[in-house]
Amino acid sequence: MRTSIVREMKINKYIYRFSESDESSLSAYSNHSSLFSVKKCIVISGSDIIMLKETSLFLKVLNALPLLNTETFEPFSILKNEKVISRSQKVFLKPNFTFNIGNKAYRILLSGNNHINISVNNLPAANYYRETMSYAEKCTYEVDFDCGLISRKYVLLFCMFIDYVFFRNHTSFSGIKYEKWF
Question: What is the pTM for the complete model shown?
Fold first, then answer.
Protein backbone atom coordinates (compact mmCIF):
# COMPACT_ATOMS: atom_id res chain seq x y z
CA MET A 1 0.00 0.00 0.00
CA ARG A 2 1.26 3.50 -0.81
CA THR A 3 0.51 6.49 1.40
CA SER A 4 1.91 9.80 2.62
CA ILE A 5 2.51 10.95 6.19
CA VAL A 6 2.60 14.67 6.86
CA ARG A 7 4.37 16.27 9.83
CA GLU A 8 3.20 19.72 10.92
CA MET A 9 4.40 21.87 13.77
CA LYS A 10 1.93 23.21 16.30
CA ILE A 11 2.66 25.44 19.30
CA ASN A 12 3.99 22.75 21.64
CA LYS A 13 4.12 19.60 19.50
CA TYR A 14 4.44 18.00 16.09
CA ILE A 15 1.30 16.49 14.57
CA TYR A 16 1.65 13.48 12.26
CA ARG A 17 -1.18 12.34 10.01
CA PHE A 18 -1.83 10.23 6.96
CA SER A 19 -2.61 12.41 3.98
CA GLU A 20 -5.83 10.50 3.35
CA SER A 21 -8.80 11.94 5.19
CA ASP A 22 -10.40 8.53 5.85
CA GLU A 23 -7.92 7.54 8.61
CA SER A 24 -9.60 9.47 11.42
CA SER A 25 -9.26 6.59 13.92
CA LEU A 26 -5.52 7.28 14.31
CA SER A 27 -4.01 10.39 15.82
CA ALA A 28 -0.33 10.94 16.46
CA TYR A 29 1.81 13.64 17.99
CA SER A 30 5.19 14.17 19.61
CA ASN A 31 6.50 16.81 21.97
CA HIS A 32 9.20 19.30 21.10
CA SER A 33 12.24 18.07 22.92
CA SER A 34 15.29 20.01 23.91
CA LEU A 35 18.60 18.71 25.15
CA PHE A 36 17.24 18.44 28.70
CA SER A 37 13.83 16.94 28.05
CA VAL A 38 12.75 13.45 27.05
CA LYS A 39 11.16 12.84 23.64
CA LYS A 40 7.74 11.18 23.55
CA CYS A 41 5.90 10.04 20.42
CA ILE A 42 2.28 8.97 20.90
CA VAL A 43 -0.16 7.17 18.58
CA ILE A 44 -3.78 6.84 19.68
CA SER A 45 -5.72 4.08 17.96
CA GLY A 46 -9.18 3.63 19.44
CA SER A 47 -8.65 2.68 23.08
CA ASP A 48 -4.97 1.79 22.57
CA ILE A 49 -2.28 4.35 23.36
CA ILE A 50 1.14 3.45 21.98
CA MET A 51 4.06 5.58 23.13
CA LEU A 52 7.67 5.61 22.02
CA LYS A 53 9.91 7.49 24.43
CA GLU A 54 13.51 8.03 25.36
CA THR A 55 14.39 6.26 28.57
CA SER A 56 17.63 7.96 29.57
CA LEU A 57 18.19 11.70 29.76
CA PHE A 58 21.84 11.08 30.75
CA LEU A 59 22.57 9.19 27.51
CA LYS A 60 20.79 11.88 25.50
CA VAL A 61 23.06 14.56 27.00
CA LEU A 62 26.11 12.32 26.46
CA ASN A 63 25.13 11.94 22.79
CA ALA A 64 25.11 15.74 22.39
CA LEU A 65 28.84 15.99 23.09
CA PRO A 66 30.65 16.83 19.83
CA LEU A 67 33.07 13.91 19.92
CA LEU A 68 30.40 11.33 20.68
CA ASN A 69 27.46 12.46 18.56
CA THR A 70 28.28 10.10 15.70
CA GLU A 71 26.62 7.36 17.73
CA THR A 72 23.06 7.42 19.03
CA PHE A 73 23.22 6.37 22.67
CA GLU A 74 19.62 7.14 23.47
CA PRO A 75 17.69 3.99 24.26
CA PHE A 76 14.01 4.02 23.39
CA SER A 77 11.06 2.10 24.79
CA ILE A 78 7.69 1.35 23.26
CA LEU A 79 4.80 1.28 25.68
CA LYS A 80 1.27 0.10 25.01
CA ASN A 81 -1.27 1.42 27.50
CA GLU A 82 1.62 2.35 29.86
CA LYS A 83 3.19 -1.14 29.79
CA VAL A 84 6.65 -1.58 28.19
CA ILE A 85 6.41 -3.94 25.21
CA SER A 86 9.81 -3.31 23.60
CA ARG A 87 13.17 -1.56 23.97
CA SER A 88 15.43 -0.41 21.16
CA GLN A 89 18.57 -2.28 20.22
CA LYS A 90 21.20 -0.38 18.23
CA VAL A 91 23.97 -1.69 16.00
CA PHE A 92 27.16 0.15 16.98
CA LEU A 93 28.14 2.96 14.55
CA LYS A 94 25.40 2.02 12.07
CA PRO A 95 22.01 3.66 11.46
CA ASN A 96 20.23 0.45 12.38
CA PHE A 97 17.67 -0.07 15.18
CA THR A 98 15.62 -3.12 16.15
CA PHE A 99 12.42 -3.29 18.21
CA ASN A 100 11.10 -6.74 19.23
CA ILE A 101 7.34 -6.53 19.69
CA GLY A 102 5.64 -9.82 20.45
CA ASN A 103 6.95 -12.36 17.95
CA LYS A 104 7.96 -9.69 15.41
CA ALA A 105 11.39 -8.05 15.06
CA TYR A 106 11.08 -4.60 13.46
CA ARG A 107 14.45 -3.55 12.00
CA ILE A 108 14.83 0.10 10.96
CA LEU A 109 17.72 0.91 8.62
CA LEU A 110 18.73 4.23 7.07
CA SER A 111 19.67 3.38 3.48
CA GLY A 112 20.84 6.83 2.42
CA ASN A 113 19.37 9.46 0.10
CA ASN A 114 16.56 10.00 2.64
CA HIS A 115 15.37 6.39 2.26
CA ILE A 116 14.62 4.33 5.35
CA ASN A 117 13.65 0.66 5.25
CA ILE A 118 11.80 -1.39 7.83
CA SER A 119 11.83 -5.15 7.79
CA VAL A 120 9.72 -7.43 9.95
CA ASN A 121 11.36 -10.77 10.72
CA ASN A 122 13.78 -10.11 7.82
CA LEU A 123 10.95 -9.53 5.32
CA PRO A 124 10.67 -6.07 3.71
CA ALA A 125 7.67 -4.37 5.32
CA ALA A 126 7.93 -0.62 4.69
CA ASN A 127 9.98 1.89 2.73
CA TYR A 128 9.98 5.55 3.74
CA TYR A 129 11.21 8.44 1.64
CA ARG A 130 11.48 11.87 3.27
CA GLU A 131 11.31 14.89 1.01
CA THR A 132 14.48 16.96 1.11
CA MET A 133 12.80 20.35 1.61
CA SER A 134 10.59 21.30 4.53
CA TYR A 135 8.73 24.56 4.90
CA ALA A 136 7.81 25.96 8.33
CA GLU A 137 8.75 22.56 9.84
CA LYS A 138 6.16 20.82 7.63
CA CYS A 139 7.45 17.80 5.73
CA THR A 140 6.09 14.76 3.96
CA TYR A 141 7.12 11.11 4.01
CA GLU A 142 6.12 8.87 1.11
CA VAL A 143 5.59 5.36 2.47
CA ASP A 144 5.15 2.00 0.73
CA PHE A 145 4.19 -0.74 3.19
CA ASP A 146 2.83 -4.26 3.35
CA CYS A 147 -0.43 -4.30 5.36
CA GLY A 148 0.09 -7.97 6.18
CA LEU A 149 3.41 -7.33 7.93
CA ILE A 150 3.04 -3.93 9.60
CA SER A 151 -0.09 -2.13 10.82
CA ARG A 152 -0.84 1.52 10.07
CA LYS A 153 -0.32 2.49 13.72
CA TYR A 154 3.25 1.14 13.66
CA VAL A 155 3.87 2.79 10.26
CA LEU A 156 2.94 6.09 11.91
CA LEU A 157 4.89 5.41 15.14
CA PHE A 158 8.07 4.44 13.29
CA CYS A 159 7.72 7.50 11.05
CA MET A 160 7.90 9.67 14.18
CA PHE A 161 10.91 7.68 15.39
CA ILE A 162 12.66 8.09 12.02
CA ASP A 163 11.87 11.80 11.96
CA TYR A 164 13.35 12.29 15.41
CA VAL A 165 16.41 10.03 15.23
CA PHE A 166 17.58 10.62 11.66
CA PHE A 167 16.28 14.13 10.88
CA ARG A 168 16.21 15.97 14.20
CA ASN A 169 17.37 19.43 15.10
CA HIS A 170 17.14 20.23 18.81
CA THR A 171 18.36 23.78 18.58
CA SER A 172 16.28 25.65 16.03
CA PHE A 173 13.15 25.81 13.94
CA SER A 174 13.40 26.76 10.29
CA GLY A 175 11.20 28.46 7.76
CA ILE A 176 12.92 26.53 4.96
CA LYS A 177 15.24 23.57 5.55
CA TYR A 178 17.13 21.28 3.20
CA GLU A 179 18.03 17.87 4.67
CA LYS A 180 19.55 15.00 2.80
CA TRP A 181 21.31 11.86 4.05
CA PHE A 182 23.72 10.31 1.58
Answer: 0.87
Instruction: Give the dihedral sign, CA 111/167/31/33.
Output: positive
In angstroms, the CA 83 to CA 66 distance is 34
Amino acid identity for residue 16 in this structure: Y
What span, in angstroms and rounded, lies between the C-alpha atoms of 7 and 3?
Answer: 13
The rounded distance, in Å, linking the Cα atoms of 11 and 31 is: 10
Task: Output the pLDDT for position 150.
Answer: 96
For residue 115, give the nearest of 46, 166, 58 by alpha carbon. Answer: 166
Residues 87/77, Cβ–Cβ less than 8 Å: yes
Instruction: Classify residue 122 as left (phi > 0), alpha (psi -120 to 50) or beta.
Output: left
Alpha carbon distances (Å) from 173 to 28, 77, 87, 133: 20, 26, 29, 13
> Is the separation of the CB atoms in 155 and 19 below 8 Å?
no
Q: How far apart are CA 177 and CA 118, in angstroms?
A: 25
The gap from C-alpha 176 to its chain's centroid, in whole angstroms, comes to 21
Give per-residue pLDDT as tens, 71-115.
566 688 999 999 999 998 877 767 788 999 999 999 999 888 889
